[in-house]
């Protein structure tokens, strides 16, 4: 047994489609079974999620644990697990619609345990599962570009890198308690706010490109729009609560949308404004279409010609609208 013990937290709600594959990927980790456990926290699921988890608990009674999260959202669920899992000094998290590569825990712990104590956590890179939906694959390609992932750490890294934020992290539990754990007011964006608090406290975060997680993304336009809208609202809330957490790039999509609308209204009285508006829109559409052609040729997937521009448009519009709505909710604009 290692001297360190890891609690792998899986906060879920209505994940019956994916939870079994997630659990199997964690059970089959290339890591000593007496050095980690799986902690599922269910947020009021109304499908078969808890039934599936309990089936595996019956086979792995001391290895898989189940908590019930009455608040429902992830930040509260993860805090519940962290506070109740007293035997662990390290905590990792992964979502229920993810599959961890076999060496995921090993690759995270090898780096964290050989890093200075000011490294609070080591995170993963996101890959597309082999059976990812067409839109999900397009979203993955969009997030791998600067235009689609500006201000985030989703752009693939080729070496161990210091980052502002990162998904699917193995943390030192001591560092989490020092910054007050997850902010339970955050229904979305809880990872970003936690990582900001850690950096503000003087800690560093790393991403290890050898730690891979296969992540199922939204399967249709409506789900993806809602996700991006909620991210936008959350970023505005973060900007009010932690002003230093936002960079200029976070304001850019909403600023761009406001500029486009302004030129549109101005064009009613000044026709030249419509030419400027048309040029901006044409340049944007040209850029995303060229990106779709690049990935189509590179991967031989001509569905990208439609799906990648669609993903860009939904991402940018959803985030921009959410950000503006969030600002209004926070009283920044009337």
Automatic annotation (TrEMBL):
Location of the Glycosyltransferase 2-like domain: 7-175
Record-annotated membrane-spanning stretches: 249-269, 275-297
InterPro entries referenced in this protein's UniProt entry, alphabetically: Glyco_trans_2-like, Nucleotide-diphossugar_trans
Cited CDD domains: Succinoglycan_BP_ExoA
Domain of life: Archaea
Keyword field: Membrane, Transmembrane, Transmembrane helix
Name used for this protein in its record: Glycosyltransferase 2-like domain-containing protein
The organism's taxonomic lineage, starting at the top: Archaea, Methanobacteriati, Methanobacteriota, Stenosarchaea group, Methanomicrobia
């Amino acid at each position: 047994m290692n001297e360190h013990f890891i609690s792998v937290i899986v906060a879920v709600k209505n994940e019956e489609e994916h939870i079994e594959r997630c659990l199997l990927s964690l059970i089959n980790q290339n890591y000593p079974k007496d050095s980690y456990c799986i902690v599922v926290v269910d947020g009021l699921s109304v499908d078969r999620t808890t039934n599936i988890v309990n089936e595996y608990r019956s086979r792995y009674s001391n290895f898989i644990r189940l908590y019930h999260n009455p608040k429902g959202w992830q930040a509260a669920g993860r805090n519940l697990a962290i506070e109740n899992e007293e035997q662990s000094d390290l905590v990792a998290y992964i979502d229920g619609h993810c599959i961890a590569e076999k060496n995921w825990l090993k690759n995270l712990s090898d780096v964290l345990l050989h890093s200075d104590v000011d490294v609070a956590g080591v995170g993963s890179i996101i890959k597309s599962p082999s059976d990812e939906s067409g839109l999900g694959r397009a979203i993955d390609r969009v997030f791998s570009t600067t235009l689609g992932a500006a201000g985030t750490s989703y752009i693939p890294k080729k070496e161990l890198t210091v980052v502002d934020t990162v998904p699917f992290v193995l943390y030192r539990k001591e560092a989490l308690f020092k910054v007050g754990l997850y902010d339970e007011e955050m229904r979305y964006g809880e990872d970003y706010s936690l990582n900001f608090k850690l950096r503000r406290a003087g800690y560093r975060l790393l991403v290890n490109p050898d730690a891979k997680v296969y992540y199922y993304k939204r399967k249709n336009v409506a789900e993806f729009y809602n996700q991006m809208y909620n991210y936008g609202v959350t970023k505005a809330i973060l900007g009010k609560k932690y002003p230093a957490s936002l960079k200029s790039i976070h304001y850019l999509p909403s600023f761009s949308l406001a500029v486009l609308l302004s030129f549109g209204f101005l064009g009613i009285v000044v026709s030249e404004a419509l030419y400027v508006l048309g040029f901006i829109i044409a340049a944007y559409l040209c850029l995303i279409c060229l990106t779709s052609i690049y990935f189509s040729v590179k991967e031989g997937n001509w569905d990208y010609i439609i799906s990648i521009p669609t993903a860009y448009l939904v991402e940018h519009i959803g985030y921009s609208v959410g950000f503006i709505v969030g600002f209004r909710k926070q009283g920044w604009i009337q």
